[in-house]
Amino acid sequence: MKKYLLMFVLIGTLAFLTACTDLFQKPSSGGGTTQPSVEDGWKSLEEGKVSEAESIFEDVLSRNPNDPDANAGMAIVKTYRFKEKLYSIAESIQNSLPSFPTSTPLKSSTQLDQSEIDSAIDDLLEIEEYLDRALSDPNISHKLYVNKFDWDGDGTVEAYTPMKVKDANGTIYSIEEVIYSEQPSGTPPYVVIPDGGDAWFDFEWFRAMLREEELPETIAFDNNDYITIDDGTLYLLKFFVKSILASLRLLATWNLSLPDDFPTNYDDPNWLADVLEYFDENENMTIDENEWQRLDPFLTFRENGSQNLSGSVNALEEGIEALLEADEDSEKDEEDLHDITSQEYLPEYGLLRDEDEESLRNFLDTLDMKVDVDDDGNTDYTLHFSILKNNPDNFSDLKVFFPSMQFQNIDGTIVLKSIGELPDPTLGGLVEPGIVLPGFVGDILRRGSILK
Asked: Rounded to two decimals, what is the model's pTM?
């Protein structure tokens, strides 16, 4: 099942970044009216005229706000528009990642633009509203030509030229090396670059993969590369919208900016000594729990931090509910060659196995997640997401959970000597049983070469 679900995650994530370009045509009810119709909007999308389609859908919705097809069209248009922000945020995350296994710190110039994240959250909430109104019609049906839009933003649609992406290390790959490989190249997240094409979806290859048949020898992008969009795939799209929303709400919860006077001579070999001096007011080669507060406002609640933290859990719940709806649709869908949630591809148990469905429903009932750290089949920790949802103010300052750290001078080089116990091993009641650092974070720090 892991293979199935992983493939659907991949397809669904990419479908989340796609725009629809054709329509299952319905009889017009305009009766000679000169006003633009839903069909006109979808026809514009078919021709790649996104702005024109958006204007038509807006006109239709001004007259009938609940029209399912117009709402579906606007959801697709807004999702397509959203890709630029998603690319930008993904690139910012790339630039903000430390370079492990070395201990290179973040540079102040690469800190995340949290105002951009706030704007992205608003966009996702708007897309969700359109999707909910579209899903009022269980018979909705569209074709999604996933290669026929300008994904790389170079001003030209190159529907038959493979997309190129940049990974977290800045290395450029063709999309075939990332998607169509048993061992994907690069390190996620990936960002689409403007020097490639717009094609990434080869229907024949995905169909063979999902059916566990022999894969085509070559990747070919052509006019058969589309999928059917029905209520099942719209629920799947909603699942990914909610998943991204949950992540962005977490990024919007805490202030991620370091103080202006924090040492920024990152290339200096004495940088760690400067950091220690910055914290070590007692000059005892130790950073205690109170001295971490010199990092303020870093990791303290932003405005609406409490609502964002609770909202992140709510988005996670609603995303799982949408996934379960997609699973229910997949169990009843008849065989459809281009419908990836139909019995054509899921003949045994639908999108989820019974045990997976039961596990997700149990999470919705309890908001408890079991964690198997060493993959031995036993639960090592239980994460109580209800704490985040119902008591978000417990996490208004994450620095209160930081342990003390001791340093030592070895031949003129400052290195980390030891890490003290966590002030609250349960992290505010989130983790059960409590975390013991030497077997958890301590190992992570050692793998990151922070401990010498």
From this structure: 0.79
